[in-house]
BZIP domain-containing protein (Gossypium tomentosum), 164 residues
Amino acid sequence: MNVFSWVRIAASREYSQRYRLKQLQYIAQLEAGVKALEEELANAFPKIRYVDAQNTLLRADNGSMKEKLSTLSGELMLKEAEYHELKNEKEVLKQMSLMYRAPAFAESYQTNHYGYQHVNNIAMDQPGFNQFVEPTAPQAMMQNQNPENQFGFDVNIRDNHNLM
């Protein structure tokens, strides 16, 4: 064997030794990473269990709220139907009342598409003109010399809105 072979064998052994050391360092580095991840998992596991328990509680609460919403939606639909039924019944009764009290007034009573009433050519002294206001005697009105109405405005002044 010549010297060149011995040098080559020595270099090969040295390279193999460095390679084994690098492998051992890499394995040690991987083991340290595994230990760090295991510690992180050990710290995170109770947090994960806590959040999972909270999630379960919130899902149960969400389910009960959905059930309650469904119940309330059904009740709302019933109330709205009842409201519309009573509203229609009110209109029918109103029409019947008007026809019974003042046939001439009932013929002129109409509602437009906004729900407002059209009243045409009806005298104020006609029976049933304003069934919600109590009739007052003219003498009682003359005895009240207070020029202010119930809201504190002078009824004799035409522009009450300009008083301020």
Remarks:
- The chain has three helices and two strands.
